[in-house]
Design brief:
single chain; six-stranded mixed beta sheet; 11 helices; alpha+beta; disordered C terminus
Length: 451
């Protein structure tokens, strides 16, 4: 699907996710930007690479947006598409004198870390792109984007499209796409579809789930504290393919199943008789999968029977996630009022955290799981430059990250050593792996004995 934006002179409303992001960030001095980086080895055609990046920015209007902030309550914040300026250079290029490849990488990581923490705003475009040159066959490409216009799905689209367009431009007569779905139109459509009845339903749903969260707060296990950290596991391509087939028959997704297994493991290894967790949500519709912009939000889920048989927990989780997505669209002022309201009778503790003591971050990508790729004569490594001297503290007791690719799933369970601890986190991940092994082996057994 391709469409043009409403036009450079017409302000459009923010998406609900943008509203909430800005509302949460008021008073925060430093925001972390969305980031990605590549080490590029081989003879890079820098002119064509810059053209590939320019084309991406030209056809995706989210990267030509500027905020229109208003002090008046009667006039809400908005955003406006800036025109394409032919003589603008999207990328800052720099030749770096370094004594070794390792020294060059350290410099690239330091520059990247600074960009990640530098607020993007004002008259600038909502991104910073740098191409650092060590020599003719060694470059670093560093990209940071303002999260108010860019989310994880956009991150994936950028990575795929720039290398696709670069390859196309290298071919004689190759012509990359010039149009893409408009973020401005998508934001406008959400507000045009808003009705009083839908807003009231969304407000009621959020109120019920927030009240459930207040009544079922995280209960710290009786165990000695450990250093905070994470537990990592990768599900193989064969295991994921078998799990997908199982999920088809169970009428759920792989992510529904993994979150269901996680929730059941939490109930098994703690005293949580009911589980409240927050999960990431992507509000893109089926025709907006390739729309760059900010559609990523989060919402609380209420799981009443986390200790039930696994298939029942998965079904409850799937229903809760679908219901949360259906009622996700709520103005930031309403969300703020719900989260800061006085606690209901029978609840304890102060205000609820913005992402919850148990948080699940889910991302599904259509491509393969790989940190490196070959494009023509290039060797391209993603996430090549780690942040330096930056410590990112997680506010949740347990934070599950699931990244689903065509040929595998990466699972990371981050834990707070004071409120959860490594033994609990390891037990939960072990149970997820055990559940996966059980499901896939049963499927193989049933197939093996079919007549």
């Amino acid at each position: 699907m391709t469409s043009s934006s409403p036009g450079p002179a017409a302000p459009v409303p923010l998406t609900y996710e943008q509203e909430w992001y800005l509302a949460r960030g008021r008073g925060i001095r430093t925001r972390r930007n969305v980031r990605l980086s590549f080490r590029i080895l081989g003879p890079l055609d820098t002119d064509r690479f810059e053209e590939a990046v320019r084309l991406f920015i030209a056809r995706h209007d989210a990267l030509r947006m500027a905020l229109v902030l208003n002090d008046s309550v009667e006039t809400p914040d908005a955003q406006q598409v800036s025109p394409v300026r032919p003589h603008d250079r999207s990328i800052t290029t720099q030749s770096v004198t370094a004594g070794s490849a390792d020294q060059f990488s350290r410099y690239a990581a330091a520059v990247f870390s600074r960009d990640v923490l530098t607020p993007l705003g004002g008259e600038k475009r909502p991104f910073t792109l740098r191409l650092l040159r060590h020599d003719t066959e060694h470059h670093a490409f560093l990209a940071t984007f303002s999260n108010v216009f860019f989310d994880g799905r956009a991150h994936d689209l950028f990575s795929r499209e720039i290398w696709r367009d670069y390859t196309t431009l290298r071919d004689p007569g190759g012509v990359p796409p010039t149009a893409a779905p408009s973020f401005a139109r998508a934001a406008l459509a959400r507000h045009e579809s808003r009705s009083v009845r839908r807003l009231e339903r969304a407000r009621t749903s959020w109120h019920e789930r927030i009240e459930f969260a207040a009544r079922n707060r995280w209960q710290e296990p009786a165990a000695s504290p450990t250093p905070s950290g994470s537990v990592h596991v990768r599900l193989s391509a064969s295991a994921v393919e078998e799990l997908r087939e199982h999920c088809k028959s169970a009428r759920c997704t792989v992510m529904h199943w993994l979150v269901g297994s996680f929730v059941r493991a939490v109930a098994t290894h703690t005293e949580q008789r009911r589980v409240s967790l927050w999960t990431s949500l992507d509000s893109r519709g089926p025709t907006e999968r390739d729309t760059v912009g900010m559609f990523a939000g989060s919402a609380p889920l209420a799981i009443n029977a986390p200790g039930a048989p696994l298939h029942e927990v998965v079904a409850e989780v799937a229903g809760a996630m679908v219901d949360a997505l259906r009622h996700q669209q709520l103005p930031a002022c309403d969300l703020t009022a719900l989260l800061t309201a006085p606690p209901a009778a029978g609840t304890s503790g102060g205000p609820l955290p913005l992402v919850g003591d148990i948080y699940v971050n889910l991302r599904s990508f259509p491509g393969p799981l790989r940190s490196a790729r070959n494009s023509s004569s290039l060797r391209i490594t993603a996430d090549a430059y780690p942040l330096r001297r930056i410590t990112l503290k997680d506010s949740s007791a347990l934070h599950l990250r699931c990244n689903e690719y065509r040929d595998g799933v990466l699972i990371d369970l981050l834990f707070d050593g004071e409120r959860a601890g490594r033994p609990l986190a390891q037990s939960i991940v072990d149970q997820i792996v055990s559940d996966t092994t059980t499901v896939t082996s049963r499927r193989l057994s049933s197939e093996r004995f079919l007549p």
